[in-house]
Structure formats: structure tokens, C-alpha cells
Amino acid sequence: MNNQATDDTPWWLKYFTRFLGSASSLVAIGIGAWACFTITARCLMAGILQMLLGVVVALIEVPCFCAFLDFAQNPYNYFEKRPYWHKALLYVIASKDEMMMKAASMSSLIPTKEQPQDVDAGPSSAERFH
Q1: CB of 72 within 8 A of CB of 63?
Q2: InterPro entries under this entry (predicted)?
Q3: Each residue's pLDDT tens digit, 58-111
Q4: 100-103 own/partner pairs: CB under 8 Å, 24+ apart
């Protein structure tokens, strides 16, 4: 099952994806921290979840970011033996819930135009001319 030994992926592509993964984990942690300064509980939970997912991506892509954790090398070693689509599937599934929570909290902040129900509009145009 060692996919990496027989892998024909160019070396520059491997390093480029590692760079993108490490940069995106730092951005996710930063935006998650920024989202925690909010007035809605849903947005707070989405920010916390986004920071946790940023740490998970950092553990998988670049464990040197989390060298202070004893188990930092284990997720990296596990996913090095797996095909690349396993990581991609994990990232898509993990981010789905966080994005749904954030979208739901943002939709509640958008004002909607409500129609007045019991407003006396005055006489109709036909009644005014009689």
C-alpha cells in the first residue's frame, strides 16, 4: 500500500502542494481567530472549528508547525502512505460543516425587506375620483 514509493508525481508538485497546505493552514487559523470576535454563537463555533481544522491541516502537511505536540509526526506519517485523494477527501468533508455553519450565521445578518401587513394605504385611486 506504499503509494509514495511508486509515485510518479514530480518533486516540485509535491513541494508546491506542501507549501499551499502550510499557507492555507496558517490562513485558516488566522481567519478562524478573527471570526471568534462576533456576536453570534454560530459564527463563534465556526471560527473555533476553522482553527481546529487549520491545526489538523498543519499536522498533516507540515508537522514542524506543531513541534510542541508529542504526536505531531503521526498524522504526517499516516497520510504519507496514503494516496493523495485521501487527503483531498478529508479536507473537503471536514470543511463542509464549518462552511455551512458560517453561511447560516451570515444569512441571519442580512436584512430582508418585509411587506407591511396591516397598513392603511388610504383610498384607492377609484375611490379618490368619486
Answers
A1: yes
A2: TVP18/Ca-channel_flower
A3: 888 887 777 777 887 888 888 888 888 888 888 888 777 776 766 665 555 555
A4: 101/42, 101/43, 101/45, 101/46, 101/49, 102/35, 102/42, 102/43, 102/46, 102/50
